[in-house]
Design brief:
mainly alpha; Methane Monooxygenase Hydroxylase, Chain G, domain 1; 8 helices; elongated; about 75% helix; about 220 residues
Length: about 220
């Protein structure tokens, strides 16, 4: 029997183990950078709308770092092995997308497009859903980021009142309603997306309750 077969197989296993560890370290760095960016972006909940531009400008270095982290991760992954290791970084990329989407809303009061994601994170969103020929951000990761925006908006509506910015919840309510209507056009097959989409109505309800309370108290028209 030729034992060289097993020697070659062990070499291959060692390579796989080494790559696994490198990817895990890259994801760990990405998560660390995202946590820092999230902490800085969370300050937007404690200030009126007139001051949020300072926060979105201050977070620019964190997005540059996230972009570098994702680029380092992308260099480790061959297209053929993309889905083999995808679960290792998917949650981290979901978080990165949600940060970009929230930052774009704070800056411009609009929904971040796939092009915005590529600008901030340096990787394309696979909107064609075709064969993987390079490291990409999946449509599902982008949509998870959009769903996360609803919870940020519900918090922002409540916190705007706390900082005496009583006009902002109306704009948030209008935007959230339009965004929800757009989401309803999707026929979601992904189980995790479907479950998270079902939770959106609770965020919408919270925003509507803020609007109701303000009107009852005569603070808005």
């Amino acid at each position: 029997m030729d034992v060289q077969i097993f020697i070659d197989l062990q070499d291959r296993l060692d390579q796989e183990t080494s790559l696994f560890e490198e990817v895990r370290e890259a994801v760990k760095e990405l998560n660390k950078t995202c946590r820092l960016a999230s902490a800085k972006l969370a300050k937007a909940h404690a200030v009126p709308q007139s001051q949020t531009h300072e926060i979105t400008e201050a977070i620019t270095p964190q997005f540059a770092a996230i972009k570098e982290n994702i680029s380092a991760l992308a260099k480790l992954i061959r297209p053929a092995a993309f889905y083999k290791y995808h679960d290792m970084w998917s949650n981290a990329v979901n978080t990165a997308c949600s940060l970009v989407i929230f930052a774009v809303y704070l800056a411009d009061a609009r929904l971040a497009s796939p092009e915005d994601i590529e600008k901030y994170l340096g990787q394309k969103v696979n909107v064609t859903n075709g064969e993987i020929t390079e490291f990409v951000i999946t449509i599902e990761e982008y949509l998870h980021g959009v769903i996360s925006l609803f919870s940020e908006l519900s918090r922002l509506a409540v916190n705007s009142v706390i900082v005496n910015d009583v006009k902002r919840p109306q704009a948030i309510s209008t935007f959230a309603s339009e965004l929800y209507s757009g989401f309803q056009l999707l026929n979601l097959k992904n189980d995790s997306l479907r479950r998270r989409f079902d939770s959106i109505k609770y965020d919408i309800k919270k925003i509507e309750e803020v609007q109701y309370d303000l009107r009852v108290r005569g603070l808005t028209a």
